[in-house]
Amino acid sequence: DIQMTQSPSSLSAFVGDRVTITCRASQSISRYLNWYQQKPGKAPKLLIYAASSLQNGVPSRFRGSGSGTDFTLTISSLQPEDFATYYCQQSDIRPITFGQGTRLEIK
Amino acid sequence: EAQLVESGGDLVQPGGSLRLSCVASGFTFSNHWMSWVRQAPGKGLEWVANINQAGGETYYVDSVKGRFTISRDNAKTTLYLQMNSLRAEDTAMYFCTRGWVFTLDRGSRLSNDLWGQGTLVSVSS
Asked: Residue A92: which of B59, B95, B106 has the nearest Cβ?
């Protein structure tokens, strides 16, 4: 199975900060990488698919990049509603696997 | 508005069975791959199974193979997960999700662009 490793596991930031979350795959997955946001008690929400394509309705402050084994999710200017847990997911090779999550908290 | 609504979660004893349902509305259900994803309490997300549009292709994570069966009824716009021989480690919120297909160099793959609110399965004696 492909292991997806996110870093950091948690981070604290201020509103207005630029933050970057990293996701590394245990083998190359081309750009078959998706990012989700999950708020407490809610279902996940798709933010980015195919490593860098913004899902409809997602603010442009979210940006995905990378290919092969290394990927990043960048939020250019944190808004209060962005504090949540973020997951990467590879869908290149079954079983589909998720990273362990990155919890983004308000500083 | 596109929507997925799960039901069927319950408290069940180890070795027991449950059938989860997910009713879809607001989109053409038969056009989409569908999946189940679960989340144990306080833990991360785990893909469980998916099924193609016609129901002829199904895939499972190893830990549920032979115990869980994913199926669909396109006429009823409903996705199912039959869960047998349940174990404590199957305790989780189970989410129904819609597949969003995208195509790159190696062909078409899935993301999950619509999620239900989840249904809770607890396995305990």
From this structure: B106
Please tell me the number of Cα atoms within 13 Å of A96 on its side-chain side: 26
Backbone dihedral angles phi then psi of residue B88, each to the nearest 5 degrees:
-55, -35
The per-residue b/e assignment along B106-122, b for 16 or more CB within 10 angstroms, e otherwise, is eeebbbbbbbbebbebe
Contacts of B11 (CB under 8 A, 6+ apart): B122, B123, B124
Quote the minimal CA–CA distance from A84 to chain B in Å.
Answer: 13
Q: How close are the terminal C-alpha atoms of chain B, in Å?
A: 40
Q: For residue range A34-82, list pLDDT tens digits in order.
A: 999 999 999 999 999 999 999 999 999 999 999 999 999 999 999 999 9
Contacts of A89 in chain B (CB under 8 A): 45, 47, 111-112
Task: Answer yes or no: do A55 and B112 touch at CB < 8 A.
Answer: no
A44 vs B115: CB contact, 8 Å cut-off?
Answer: yes
Nearest to A55 among B37, B106, B113 (CB): B113
The tokens describing A89, both together, are 């997911």
Of B47, B113, B115, the CB nearest to A95: B47
Per-residue pLDDT tens digits for B96-112: 999 999 999 889 999 99
| Sequence-separated (6 or more) residues with CB below 8 Å from residue A43 | B95, B115, B116, B117, B118
